Amino acid sequence: MQLLKNKEFTRWFIVVTSLVIMTLITWNIVVFYDRIKVDERTKMSVWVMAMESVSQAALKDADLNFELEILKLNQNIPTIILDDSDEILTVDNVPEEIASDSLKLRKFIDKLASENEPIRMSMGENDFSTIFYGNSAVLSKIKYYPVILLMIILLFLALVYFFYYTSKASEQNLLWAGMAKETAHQIGTPLSSLFGWLEILK
Fold first, then answer.
1. Contact 120/81 with Cβ under 8 angstroms?
2. Around Cβ 146, how many Cβ atoms within 10 Å?
3. How far apart are CA 81 and CA 127, in angstroms?
């Protein structure tokens, strides 16, 4: 009986520990995703400031090397700049099949607006633009990891349930087999006596 209790405790300990580990991994991925999203927002804010410096530079001989280097750093975040009259000014890091189709591009702008809050940018006196930007390729991949982990957890739970169900059925089968053997043994004792008496009577 004590052995059965120990096996039950070990089984549930493994199940609970595995679930805790999976939950911690999922939580860390969510925190990591949020951190990268904040970092990308910060990078885009710096990029917007560089754009503002370049567009507002009044002197032709102004040194804008630093700002231009910052603008070159954006290689993987899709960005679209619209003026106040909703006209598209620039399109960067957007797939060609979307950039070449105005209808797809407008839908893509709505998608970018749902992913990140657009940033207002001053291009000069009374001249403002709006920057729409999306998630980078890395961030887009990471956001699916919690879903994948959830599927793994569900699969793991299904396997644990199957293992628990089969092991319990196996224990019950062993119990029934033991009881059948014991019953056969107990029945065998009086039967052997009866057979002996039958031989004597004959």
1. no
2. 15
3. 13
For residue 135, give the H/E element and its range: none
Which amino acid is it at 150?
A: L
Domains of the chain: which residue ranges? 2-143, 146-202
Digit-coded pLDDT (tens) for 146-200: 778 778 878 877 877 777 777 666 667 677 777 777 776 666 666 667 666 777 7
| Cα radius of gyration (the chain) | 36
Tokens of 171: 């224990």
Q: In Å, how far from its chain's centre is CA 175?
A: 44
Token representation of residue 158: 């299904």
Find out whether 156 and 22 touch, Cβ atoms under 8 Å.
yes
pLDDT, tens digit, 9 for 90 and up, residues 11-49: 777 778 877 887 888 888 888 888 888 888 888 888 888
- Tell me which residue of 91, 144, 138, 135 sits closest to 116, measured CA to CA: 135
Place of tokens 């793994």: 152
